[in-house]
UniProtKB/TrEMBL annotation:
This is Long-chain fatty acid--CoA ligase. PANTHER family: LONG-CHAIN-FATTY-ACID--COA LIGASE, MEDIUM_LONG-CHAIN-FATTY-ACID--COA LIGASE FADD8. The keyword Protease does not apply. Residues 419-494 form the AMP-binding enzyme C-terminal domain. It comes from Nocardioides endophyticus. GO terms for molecular function: ligase activity.
Length: 508
C-alpha cells in the first residue's frame, strides 16, 4: 500500500467521517482526500517527478500531515525533517536525501533562510501558513485539480537517524515496511469500533506512522500542535480518545499531573509507550492510575515500531494480577518478525543467553540511502543488527538489557545500565535517571548515576547507592551519584547519555 492508500481505505468506510481534528476544527476524509490530490497535482506542475524527494519541516499540523498523502499521490518520497534539529543537521539531511521541494511553516522561515543557499537542488519552497520571501505561499502553490500518479518503486519515506553519533544516515522505508508495521499493529493491539487517536508526540516520528493503522479503520486523528500534558488529559476526555502514544518521560509527567486522577480515561483502549525503556515501577503505577490499557512497542527507525509487542492483556496474569516479571520486558517478537540473539561471528544463541538482538522480515528497511557500506554492516550474516543487547526468556519474552555502546565494564564485570536505571527508578524520589560508565583508575570504569528528582525531593548520594546495592548488589551500585535539575534530551525526548558523559568528563 502507498501512504495515500490508508487515507483512501478510511474514506471508503465513510467519506464524511472526521479524519483530522485540531483546535476544534475537523476535516472529513473526503476533504483530506481532495486536498491531497490537489497537492499532488501542484507538485507535478512544479516539476516533481516520481521517486524524487519532498521534505516537510513542521510542528504537528493537519495541513502538513495532509502533504504526506499529496507526496504519496505524486509518487514522490516523503522526507520528514524534525524542526527541533539544529540548522546544520537539517541542511545535511536535505542534502543527503536530495530533496527538491520543501514544505515548511512560517515559524521556521529563519531556519530555512539559513540553510537554503547551500542547497541548490532544493528548487521549490512552499510556506504552508504564511508569506515568506523566496517561497511560494500556499494559495500560490496548491492546484485546483486533482491527480494521482502510479508509484515507480516501493520507497515511501526516508527518515534521518539523527547526528548524535556522527553523520546522520537516511533510512529508506518502503510501502511494504509500513504495511507490515500496520498489520502487526492491527493484529497485536485492541481496536474496537472507529478509533480516535490523540497525537501529542511529533508526527515526524513514532506518533506519525501510528496514524496509518488508525486511518485504515476510518478513525479520527486529533492533532496537538504543541506538547501540553494538561491539555492532553483534557482532550482524552473531551474526544473520547481510544488510542495514544507517549514516550516514558512524558508518561512520567502525566503520572505527576494533578488532573490525572479526576480525568475520565474510560474511553482508552490502548496507551502505547516506547522509544525508550520505561521504569517498571512507573509502569505498574500507570496500570493502576491510567488503567489496564498500557501497550508497549519496541522498534527502531530501521525496523519501525513493531519488532516486539506487549499488548495490554500481556501485562497481566490470567487471574488479573499484574505480571511483574513482564513489566521490564519488551514483549514477545511480533507476529510478522523473526527475532534472535546473536553472539560473536554470527552465531545464534539459545534462550537465556545475552547477545545482540537481530531481526529478519518485511519490517526491516530497504537500506541506508546512498550508504551501501552502512547497509552491509547493519545486515551482516543475513540479519538486521539493532545494536541492542538482550535475551529471550523461556516464555519467549524479549528483554533488552542495554545498548551495546552503553554497557559499563567495571572491575572486569559487565554492568548493563538499564538494569541499574530500573533499580534507581524504584526509589520514590527519583523522577528520571541515566547511568553511564566513566574512566576509573581502580575499576576501569565506574558506574555513574545522574538523577532528576521529583519536585521538592532531596536525597543523599550514599542513600541512593545503598538503595541500589540492596536490590542488585554492590558491583552494579553506582560509585558516583549526581543530581541535576533536568537531564539533556534529544528532540524526541530520549536522554542523551553522550552529553552527560561529555559534561562529567569536562574539566570544571
Amino acid at each position: 500500500m502507498r501512504l495515500a492508500d490508508y487515507l483512501d481505505k478510511g474514506a471508503s468506510l465513510g467519506p464524511d467521517a472526521p479524519c483530522l481534528t485540531t483546535d476544534g476544527e475537523t476535516l472529513s476524509y473526503a476533504e483530506v482526500q481532495d486536498l491531497s490530490g490537489r497537492i499532488a497535482a501542484a507538485l507535478v506542475a512544479h516539476g516533481v517527478r516520481p521517486g524524487e524527494k519532498v521534505a516537510i519541516l513542521s510542528a504537528n499540523d493537519p495541513l502538513a500531515f495532509t502533504c504526506v498523502f499529496g507526496i504519496s499521490r505524486a509518487a514522490a518520497v516523503w522526507c520528514p525533517i524534525n524542526p527541533r534539529n539544529e540548522a546544520a543537521e537539517n541542511q545535511e539531511l536535505l542534502e543527503l536525501f536530495e530533496c527538491v521541494t520543501l514544505f515548511f511553516q512560517e515559524r521556521f522561515a529563519p531556519l530555512v533562510q539559513q540553510i537554503r543557499g547551500d542547497l541548490p537542488q532544493l528548487s521549490t519552497l512552499v510556506c504552508i501558513d504564511g508569506d515568506v520571501p523566496g517561497a511560494l505561499s500556499w494559495e500560490d502553490f496548491v492546484a485546483g485539480h486533482v491527480i494521482d500518479v502510479p508509484p515507480v518503486d516501493d520507497v515511501a519515506m526516508i527518515v534521518g537517524t539523527g547526528g548524535t553519533t556522527g553523520r546522520p544516515k537516511g533510512v529508506m522505508l518502503t510501502g511494504t515496511n509500513l504495511e507490515t508495521m500496520t498489520a502487526i499493529t492491527l493484529m497485536s493491539y485492541p481496536f474496537e469500533g472507529r478509533p480516535v487517536y490523540l497525537a501529542l508526540a511529533p508526527l515526524t516520528h513514532a506518533a506519525g506512522v501510528l496514524c496509518f493503522p488508525v486511518l485504515a479503520l476510518g478513525g479520527e486523528i486529533v492533532v496537538m500542535r504543541a506538547p501540553d500534558v494538561g491539555q492532553f488529559l483534557e482532550l482524552v476526555e473531551r474526544h473520547r480518545v481510544t488510542h495514544t502514544f507517549l514516550p516514558p518521560t512524558l508518561i512520567y509527567m502525566v503520572l505527576a499531573h494533578e488532573a490525572l486522577d479526576t480525568t475520565d480515561l474510560s474511553s482508552l483502549q490502548c496507551f502505547w509507550y516506547g522509544a525508550a525503556p520505561m521504569s517498571a515501577t512507573r509502569l505498574e503505577e500507570a496500570l493502576v492510575r491510567i488503567g489496564p490499557v498500557m501497550g508497549q512497542l519496541f522498534g527502531q527507525t530501521e525496523a519501525p515500531m513493531m519488532i516486539s509487542t506487549l499488548p495490554p492483556r500481556d501485562h497481566f496474569r490470567p487471574d488479573g494480577s499484574i505480571a511483574h516479571e513482564r513489566l521490564s520486558s519488551a514483549g514477545r517478537p511480533a507476529p510478522l518478525v523473526t527475532v534472535s540473539i546473536m553472539g560473536d561471528e554470527g552465531a545464534l544463541l539459545p534462550r537465556g543467553e545475552r547477545g545482540e538482538i537481530v531481526v529478519r522480515g518485511s519490517l526491516v528497511m530497504a537500506g541506508y540511502h546512498r550508504n551501501p557500506e552502512a547497509t552491509a554492516e547493519a545486515s551482516a550474516y543475513g540479519w538486521h543488527h539493532t545494536g541492542d543487547i538482550g535475551y529471550l526468556d523461556d516464555d519467549g519474552f524479549l528483554h533488552i538489557v542495554d545498548r551495546a555502546k552503553d554497557m559499563v565494564i567495571t572491575g572486569g564485570f559487565n554492568v548493563y545500565s538499564t538494569e541499574v536505571e530500573q533499580a534507581l527508578m524504584a526509589h520514590p524520589d527519583v523522577q528520571d535517571c541515566a547511568v553511564i560508565g566513566l574512566p576509573d583508575e581502580k575499576w576501569g570504569e565506574r558506574v555513574t548515576a545522574v538523577l532528576q528528582l521529583r519536585p521538592g525531593a532531596n536525597v543523599e548520594p550514599a542513600e541512593i547507592t545503598a538503595f541500589v546495592k540492596e536490590r542488585i548488589g554492590s558491583i552494579k551500585a553506582p560509585k558516583q551519584v549526581e543530581v541535576w535539575p533536568d537531564l539533556p534530551r534529544s528532540k524526541v525526548g530520549k536522554v542523551l547519555k553522550s552529553d552527560i558523559r561529555t559534561s562529567l568528563q569536562s574539566p570544571a
